[in-house]
């Protein structure tokens, strides 16, 4: 099911063989807390602490509300990654408009960045690759986007393997941050 609702430009839900990627909802705060709590040591070296650290459920509800605001303002699109068969929360994936230097509102962007994370017990099963492939298809359909980027820490070999698998090319490394590009 692909529902396009202006001004979002992107689907509220994406389905793959094993996954449901859908926009975060306030009721996802408790499962998000439960996914982050055992995954802090796994995530903290690689993603911003504001994402990796579990917060009290009311703070996570507020965070998820900010995600909805970002969609409405066309600054970012974020989905939870759920197992299609069980509905279990596996992680999150996002699409951020960028220019050559930073994240910008979509109307000022010439590229987009895909970010992703998985809970510690969901790694090594191909879920991140499957989710990124689905979001890459969305990104490539966006107007005025010349290419798609994935940025990951050079020391994070499992994360860097994903853009390689999906045909991205290593464009540059900036202070341990690898930038991978894919034509839109």
TrEMBL record:
Residues 19-184 form the N-acetyltransferase domain. It comes from the Bacteria. PROSITE patterns: GNAT. One of its GO terms (molecular function) is acyltransferase activity, transferring groups other than amino-acyl groups. Pfam families: Acetyltransf_3. PANTHER family: GNAT FAMILY, PUTATIVE (AFU_ORTHOLOGUE AFUA_3G00765)-RELATED-RELATED. This is Acetyltransferase. It comes from Roseisolibacter agri.
């Amino acid at each position: 099911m692909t529902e396009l609702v202006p001004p979002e430009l992107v689907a509220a839900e994406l389905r793959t063989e094993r996954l449901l990627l859908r926009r975060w909802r306030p009721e996802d705060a408790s499962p998000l807390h439960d996914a982050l709590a055992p995954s802090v040591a796994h995530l903290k070296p690689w993603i911003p602490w504001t994402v990796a650290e579990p917060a009290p459920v009311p703070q996570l509800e507020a965070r998820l509300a900010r995600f909805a605001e970002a969609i409405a303002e066309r600054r970012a699109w974020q989905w939870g990654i759920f197992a299609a068969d069980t509905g279990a929360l596996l992680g999150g994936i996002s699409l951020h408009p960028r220019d050559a230097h930073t994240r910008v509102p979509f109307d000022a962007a010439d590229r987009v960045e895909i970010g992703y994370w998985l809970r510690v017990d969901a790694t090594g099963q191909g879920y991140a690759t499957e989710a990124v492939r689905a979001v890459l298809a969305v990104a490539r359909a966006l107007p005025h986007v010349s290419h798609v980027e994935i940025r990951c820490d050079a020391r994070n070999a499992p994360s860097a393997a994903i853009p390689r698998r999906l045909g991205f090319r290593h464009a540059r490394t900036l202070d341990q941050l690898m930038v991978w590009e894919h034509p839109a």
